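Lecture 7 notes: from sequence to structure.

We start with a single chain of 255 residues. Read the sequence below before looking at the structure.
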Amino acid sequence: MAVKAWKLTAGILAGALLLTSCSAQDASDEMPDDLTHQKAAERPTAATTESAPSESAAAELTRAQVVASTGAVMAATLGFPNSRQITDEELKGLAVAPTDTLKDVVVLPAQCSKPVEELNWSPAQLGTEVARTDFTNEAQNIAGSIEVAKVNNREKLEDHYRTVLEIRTECKSVKLNGPEYTETLKFSSPGISEMESQLYYTRTGDSANARESLVLLQSKGDYVVMVSFMATTSLAEQEFNDVAKTIMDTAISQL
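Now the structure, written as tokens:
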């Protein structure tokens, strides 16, 4: 299915995509899955364009790296030409689940505290073979990523799927009352077909970091692929869903 490059109106501030390390004092840390886009947002001007690996180069790559690179090439054709492969050292950081991200924060309803905190998740936490490429559209200031991991423990992946489902059904609207801010997270399904897990969420409140995110997860064989995007304007249009699904389908076809 051909999908034209995604276009958004101007007005997204690049600085609004800059994320910091986990701290309950910083409102940006309460956005679930922040680690998903941190690296691309930190270096939007230093990104390089991803190219499809040659046959000889592909022979030296892990399967996860080949899949991630293929997805990034498709992203480039759909309007995200700037990309950067995440380093091994950075992947080690992603493999460690954040802790105490909601310290000193009152979550309402209270029963949503645990699932919201558990959304600070990365496929890198599942196994040792991991690859990720971050990509951006500098003109429109949208950060995206494709992350691929070999699943050593399928139950851990299913646990995350259950967390996402709980968020969408039991915690559709969550208020975070921190020491210096109040924010609201709203969760829903983007309604993309043939996805094992999907989540769309918005963040609004006292901070200047309001943003919207789309996260898709799909597995095949021993691998799982996550495609995700973040911006400071709506990503809810069907055309953007098509872009995300096309990137996912392209990556999954390599498994």
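The chain has a mean pLDDT of 79. Keep this in mind for problem set 3.
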